[in-house]
Amino acid sequence: MKTIGELLTILVTSSLINNVVLSQFLGLCPFLGVSKKTNTALGMGLALTFVITLSSAVCGLIYKFILIPLDMGYLQTIVFILIIAMLVQFVEMVLKKYMVSLYKALGVYLPLITTNCAVLGVALLNVQSDYNIVQGVVNGFATAIGFTIAIVIMAGIREKMYYNDVPESFKGMPIVLITAGLMAIAFTGFSGLR
Amino acid sequence: MSGEKKKGALGLQMDSPMERVFNGLIVENPTLVLMIGMCPTLAVTTSAINGITMGLATTFVLALSNAVIALLHKIIPDTVRIPAFIVVIASFVTLVQLLLAAYIPSLNDALGVYIPLIVVNCIIFGRAEAYASKHAVVPSFFDGIGMGLGFTCAITCIGLVRELIGSGTAFNIQILGEGTVIPGSVGNFLAMYQPVRIFVMQAGAFFVLACLIAFMNRVKRNMAAKGKDTSKFGVGGCCTVNTAGAPVKINAEKKEEDK
User: Fold this and answer.
1) How far apart are CA A100 and CA A94, in angstroms?
2) What is d(CA B133, CA B111) in angstroms, rounded to the nearest whole number?
3) Of B73, B75, B68, B113, whose CA–CA distance to B89 is shortest?
4) Least reliable range by pLDDT among A75-79, A93-97, A175-179, B47-51
5) Cβ contacts (< 8 Å) between A27 and chain B: which residues?
6) Per-residue confidence at B240, pLDDT binned at 50, 70, 90?
7) pTM reported for the whole predicted model
8) The complex's ipTM?
9) What is the DSSP string of B30-70?
10) How far A111 CA sits from the closest chain B CA (Å)?
11) By CA distance, what is B215's nearest residue in A?
12) What residues are paired with B170 via a beta bridge?
């Protein structure tokens, strides 16, 4: 039971307490860019969940069984970014062939994920915190869920904010950042869960 | 303009080293004007020292990867240029990471995962794609230096503001609040300052950046009102540029594939 407890701790910590966007500033780009509508935000979140979970598994396996035995741990950054770029292409091809409806739903967001620092960040953090493969996958999944929660809330707020009267200079990105800051304050409340 | 060399930033000769450096520092400052590379800008600016280290590390990677890409762009086939650029950039990032870990381990620990994440910094890839892959080695190298220094200045300033308001220090020297290094009555006055902790927390980063962009929006509006060229100003957020541009580009590529 101890392991399950540990996994649950990782799940809560990575998704809520150390929220990837609001407390670690990873994956800010899509968070600010693709959060104009709730359903596209959800699509982005799901695509990211899929890719992060898969990539943390593959990166974990390759790190443990290829890089460590060959004593080439220092190559992690290069290897991981190439794996992620490859994986995104591969996922795109598979979805295009076998799951056309899902591909159409996620299509546009998939290529953008390669440049999302959250994916590489999670792979590197898994190695840094000495997670084993299962813990790594859970951490990846939880991180992505945290991202999805944050981006969907943000999109909801932005949809409402469209009708608000915002000072001229703060229109566009500044007010979104202020909102993100307020969300970050709200999310620090989750540290009580620890 | 016949017979005259093309003038670039500040009236200097176009693509000369000096012109490139000033272009990156002022005219096309990546953080303040182009608004790219926002993730590290927010994440590492808790103090001025973190900002300066991150900026210099990025400058190093940017200058060398720009030079190498300018050298290789004729050999690299267009279809595989993105993975090739990423490998070049990632190699230099690994180099920086190992150097920092060997010589300044404390800063390496403070910056942590954000050093390897220089790989996915939009500034580096953006310059490789927009400048280095079209120009010669020397101007590309100085373009990297200029852009890198522009980024360094911007994030050091943001770091300084956050550090000063959030913990009353500048470059780790206590200036405001209790234990100030400034002597006399001025010091006594400054010691009354209570640090606003939220500025060194995550939320502070968002607020400072929001105010900065709002200020730049105002500058842009004033310039537009006076009829000056504002086309160089970014729309805010690295990735708005990315997300706005990329799907269109990807769709265009798909259409070509379908044909």
Assistant:
1) 9
2) 30
3) B68
4) A93-97
5) 39
6) very low
7) 0.80
8) 0.82
9) IIIII---HHHHHHSTTSHHHHHHHHHHHHHHHHHHHHHHH
10) 8
11) A169
12) B173
